[in-house]
Amino acid sequence: DPKYARFADDYARWYLKNLVDEKGFFWWGWHRHYDVFQDKMLGHLGNPHEIHAIHCIAWDKLWAVDPAAVRKEIEAIWQWHVIDKQTGEINRHGDGQRSCDFAMSAGSCLHAFAFLYTQTREPVWLERAKLLARYYWDRRNPATGLFPDRPNAGAQRFDGSHFVTADTGLYCHALL
Fold this sequence. Notes:
By secondary structure, the protein is mainly α. The protein has eight helices and two strands; from the N terminus they run H-E-E-H-H-H-H-H-H-H. Helix 2 (59-65) packs across helix 3 and helix 3 (67-81) crosses helix 4.
């Protein structure tokens, strides 16, 4: 029934217009929620935009509804989640600070950049995707070839010195 598809598009269009923060980020992530009783965007721990394991974003569907909003979101991901524009170090929180450079979060960022490249053919987005991939590649263990889940955590922490098998599905998907 086409009315369901129309409703989904209308809902997405409304969301992309109304549930957006001052940086251009969509109001999503584990620190954010929408309170339907108060009709407010709320959250906790500072309400940062977060890309943790959001690896299944339907960028193509959102693009079909509002390409400008999607582009703004992806540009904000570059601006606020990629904290070192030379190395490709990311933070799962969109606050521009050095923190959690989880590989699964980088995979989601990389996927967004690659998607925008497919839509615009602007080489900068492909280069940005490759930059994030190289960040982990360059930090792999020379003996095993595996990269730590969170390189900036340091070797003294488990996630800074160990490959996490969940990354195979979450991160490698974006590489492909």
